[in-house]
Amino acid sequence: MIQTLIQKLRAIKFLLRLITLIILGVASWFVVVSCATLDARQLGAKVPADMVTDYIHRIIKSERIIYGKHVVQRLKDENVVRASEHWQQEKALPLPAQMFRMTSELASENSAFSYGAISDWSLNENNIPNTNFEKKAMREVLDTGLPYKEYQVKDGKKYFSALYPDKAVSAACIDCHNQHPIHKQRYPSKIFKVGDVMGGILINLPVED
C-alpha cells in the first residue's frame, strides 16, 4: 500500500517536471518564431546580425538539450515511453531530429527567415550540404569546431547565414543514427559518440543592404 502510494507520488512528480519542460520548450519556440517576424531593418539598426543569430542559436540549442537529454533519454532510461521514427503510429515520442524539424518548419512558416540542420552524414538527403555556402561552412565547422558566418544571396535576397556545430548531447541521439539502416548502409564506418559534431545548425537571417 505504502509502496504503491510512493510510486504514484513519484509518477505525479515526474509528470509535473515533464510538463514544465514542455512549457519551457514551447516558450522557446515562440521566441524563435517572433524573431522570424521582426523587420530586418529594425534588427540591423540595433543589434549586429551575428549577435542575432547567436541569440537564436542559444535558444535552439537549449531546446535541443532539454528535449534530447531530459525528456527522450530520461523517459527511455525509466522505461516510461520511448522515441520512435514512427511516433504517431506507435504512440511514442518524436525523435530529437523530428522535433527539431517540426519546430524549424513552424518558425520558418510564411517568412524569409529559416533554420535547419545539415550534415555530411544525414539520413535525409535533403539535409546534406548542397550549396557552395553550405559545403564550405560544413567543412569549416568540422575542421575547427567553431561557427561559420557569412553573407550570401539566395533567390535574389540577401541573408546573413551562420552554421553552428551540432553536437550529440545524449545517447538517444547517437543510438538513433548509428543503428539506423540508412546510416549503416551509407556510412558504415561512421560511429558517433556523445559529444561528437554530427553536423550543423544553419540559420538564415534575411537582411537589407
Question: What can you see in these coordinates?
Answer:
Helices cover 55% and strands 18% of the residues. With 209 residues, the protein is an alpha+beta fold. The chain has one domain (2-206). The strands form two sheets. Strands 3-6-5-4 form a four-stranded antiparallel beta sheet, with helices on both faces. Strands 1-2 form a two-stranded parallel sheet. A hairpin with a 2-residue loop joins strand 4 (148-154) and strand 5 (157-167). It is globular. 26% of the residues are buried.
Total number of helices: 8
| Strand fraction | 15-25%
The overall number of domains is 1
Gross morphology: globular
The low-confidence runs, each spanning 5 or more residues with pLDDT under 50, are 29-33, 36-41
What's the main sheet like? 4 strands, antiparallel
Number of strands: 6
Structural class: alpha+beta
Gyration radius over CA: 19 Å
**What is the H/E order?**
HHHEHEHEHEEHHE
Report the mean per-residue pLDDT as an integer. Answer: 81
Alpha-carbon distance between the two ends: 70 Å
The level of helicity is 55-70%
* Strand line-up of the largest beta sheet: 3-6-5-4
Secondary structure layout:
Blueprint lengths: L1 H36 L2 H7 L2 H29 L5 E2 L2 H4 L2 E2 L1 H12 L6 E5 L13 H13 L3 E7 L2 E11 L3 H8 L2 H6 L10 E10 L3
Parallel strand pairs: 1-2
Antiparallel strand pairs: 3-6, 4-5, 5-6
Helix pairs in contact: 1-3
Task: Give me a quick take on this structure.
This protein is an alpha+beta fold and 209 residues long.
